[in-house]
Structures are given as structure tokens and as C-alpha cells.
Amino acid sequence: MNCPSLFSPLQIGPYRLEHRVVMAPLTRMRADRASLAPRPLNAEYYGQRATSGGLIIAEASPVMASGYGNPGVPGIYSDAQIRGWQEVVEAVHAKGGFIFLQLWHVGRVSHSSFQPGGALPISASAVAISPELKTMTADRKVTPYETPRALATSEIADVIESFRQAAINALKAGFDGVEIHGANGYLIEQFLQSRTNLRTDQYGGSIENRARFLMEITQAVVGVWGANRVGVRLSPYGIANDSGEADPMPLYSHVIRSLNLLGLAYLHFIEPRSSGAGRAEVNHQNVPSAMVLFRPIWRGVLITAGGFTGESAEAAIAAGHADAIAFGRIFISNPDLPRRLREGWPLTPYNRSTFYGGEESGYTDYPVYGELERA
Ligand code: FNR
Fold it and tell me: I need a surface site. Which of 154, 244, 319, 336 has the fewest CB within 10 A?
């Protein structure tokens, strides 16, 4: 039997990938500040990172106005945003690549200054993020997180409907599929985990009830796209944004078994060793491996991310722990990452100070290999 490698093809839903170097979803906060629509600079960035038969998962995009917690994040709920994304998709398709959009609601990881009418952010329950973690207001003042407002049971259907409408919008924009952001301590995870979900209705209490919000969103999105073009991202054992389930195994085993029944395009993990990678250099030691623990339960394509190098990615695929590896930080600084990994070329280091916000610098000005030498 042929052992798969990072550069062997992979079928994801209806799409045949030519390699398994996936671009991870990466918030870069460079959308148009007024319309929160992607702009030509964003299309250029994604186009630079597209490869024939390669998969890009575009950055997390709020499905509704209350889903924001950061400036300059592109949304997917207005006509201007759909048009902006169309240009991004065209740039990726022009190079023969595939692109999924990540659908997002931050829940309590926000501040009232980002919320419609200055309202409190919403969550599963009124549980604030630890005061040790700080956030920033819309006018860039460092502040503790506020205590969010718990969604009334009657409001939950509206949020699910916003995910469904966003899925329709992504289809209109020409994406190849969508990924539901159920990771990193955002709204869906706030429902999943017992620390942030103290509800007593059908969305709280038992594991089945806490998983209901994710399952209803997933079913709504599948109703738009068909299951084989929908992925779900989870971060069991993650601690980003003050998240974390005391005993993740029963919760996530249930979630993954429930998702198995839908026949999704893929499941996508963030390995706990890199939880919070967007904020600082994180490489937790002696933490469990999501892919190793949950691979035996998941029946479909598995993508995972978190601190991989070309070598460790090859090893994970060869060992059968995952089918594809998503790369975040080194895809930021190496627009030609798949080629560099295949050829064994050196990688350009990334500059963390330009991850979030700004213009071309640290975004579209990273060279492809050999470009500097040729200049
Ligand atoms: C991220 N990450 C992330 N994850 C996600 O699901 N949606 C997102 O929008 C973002 N945004 C984001 C921005 C930045 C600047 C970083 C560094 C990270 C997490 C990312 O997808 C990935 O899982 C981690 O970065 C770990 O992979 P690497 O960077 O170790 O390859």
C-alpha cells in the first residue's frame, strides 16, 4: 500500500486536492474599516498563497454584526462584503486553488464598543473572561472583558439563522465551501464547554444539550451547502480566550460522533500545543494530541494545525494521524509555502508585529523563494 505524503492527492468532498499543505484560517484585520468588506489588497494576499489544487481556509468572518470583537475583520452578511469576497475567490480560482470561508461569531470575546448600539456582547451564559486577560475597545484602549449577556432561548434561532444566511452569502461569493468556527473559545465553544455554559434550557446542562447549538448551526449550513462542502473546526484541550473543558474527552467524543452522522467534508483541529498562537509564541509541552486522541473516533477527512514544520507534517501524515496539515504563521511569511516545503527550501521567518492590522507590510510583501536573489 502506498503511504500518503504531504504531496499526495487528497479528496475532500467533491474536490481533489493536489497536495495536503492547507492554509489555516488567519485573522489579519485588513478589511475596509467602514464596510468591513474585503478589498483588493486582501484578494492579492490570498491570490499570492493559492496553488493549483491547494486548499485555503479564509479568515474567520462574522456572520452578523454582534459577531465582532476586533476592528478590520471582514464580515459575510452584507452585499458589499459578498462583492469583496468575490474578488478574493476569483484571485484564488485564477490559480486553480480551492477556498473555503470560516464562519464566525466571537460571543463574549468582544467589547460593547464593537457591538450594535453599544450593547453587551452575547454568550451562552453571563460568564466573563478572566480579568487577567485584557481586550481592546474600538478606540484601542486596553480594558478587561465585560460580563456578557446570556442569550435568551428565543434568541438562539436568530443566531443560527445568521449562520445559515452567511452560508448562503458565501455560496453567492463563489466559495468552494465553508468551515464552522467551533474552536478557540468563541461563541460555539462557549456553548460547548461547561465553564461558559450554565444554561438550564435545552442548550445547557448535559453534553447533548451543550452540543445542540453547534449541531443546529452545522445542520443549517449543511442545508445550504450539502454536507460534503462543510467543515467544522474544534480545539479540544485548547485554552484560548479563557476556554477549556475540565474533561474534554466525553464532550468532544460526543461531538465528533454526532458530526460523523452528517458526512462532512472534513474535521479540523487546532492542536492544544499552539493554543493562542495568534497572541504570543506558544508551544505548550506535554499536552495531549488532538489528532492522536480523536482520529480513531472521526470517520472522515481530518485536518490539523499547530506548530507543524514540513518534517513533522510529513510524519503526522505518514503515521496516519491526519490527512492534511494546516499551516498558519509560516504561511503568513511564505506565500509559496507548499513549494518551499516540497523543495526543502528555507523559510522566511514571520514578523508577529504585523499579524493584525495595517497595509501591505507583513501582508503582501513577503517574497516567494528566490525573488530577493533575483531582484
Ligand atoms: C490564527 N488562528 C485562527 N484560527 C481560526 O480558526 N480562525 C482564525 O481566524 C484565526 N486567526 C489567526 C490569526 C493569527 C495571526 C494566528 C497566528 C492564528 C489559528 C491558526 O489558524 C492556527 O491554528 C494556529 O496559528 C496554529 O498553526 P501554526 O501557526 O502553528 O501553523
Answer: 154
